[in-house]
Specification:
Length: 138
């Protein structure tokens, strides 16, 4: 069985990091699937979905690392072509990926004790993002 669910979140942009674990588990519960796999994705090229221990230190460390890897104020060819100033967001999204998959057991996403699924909006403005939760299982 394949079930597709959706939810929207409002973001602040600029590497806004949001814990979406509860929303994902809610969609899994709605689906009735007890075991399988869940894929979480966000259409677009300026966002990322991954996992982390969602606590302020780890979140700030991730933001700092991303700023070192793809700094906001660097010169990007994308900005030269489109003049939208979000070249860094496209690079960060390509590196982080806008999707994440995990197993479902007993009707819940399986994560480590301190692990949560996070959504990261890299764009340079606030947005409303649609998240797709696709559940495959029984």
């Amino acid at each position: 069985m394949v079930i597709t669910k959706f939810f929207k979140i409002k973001t602040e942009g600029y590497t806004d990091i949001i814990d979406i674990t509860k929303m994902i588990n809610s969609k899994i519960t709605e689906s009735g699937v007890e075991r399988g796999i869940v894929n979480i994705s966000c259409p677009g090229s300026t966002a990322g979905i991954t996992s982390i221990e969602f606590e302020s230190g780890a979140v700030e460390d991730l933001k700092d690392a991303l700023e070192k890897i793809a700094p906001m104020n660097e010169n990007y060819k994308h900005n030269e072509r489109w003049h939208d100033g979000n070249g860094y967001a496209h690079v960060r999204s390509a590196l982080m990926k806008p999707f994440f998959s995990a197993p479902i057991i007993d009707g819940r996403i399986i994560l480590g004790t301190w692990q949560q699924v996070i959504f990261i909006d890299f764009d340079n403005k606030p947005r409303t993002r649609e998240i797709i939760v696709q559940i495959v299982g029984e």
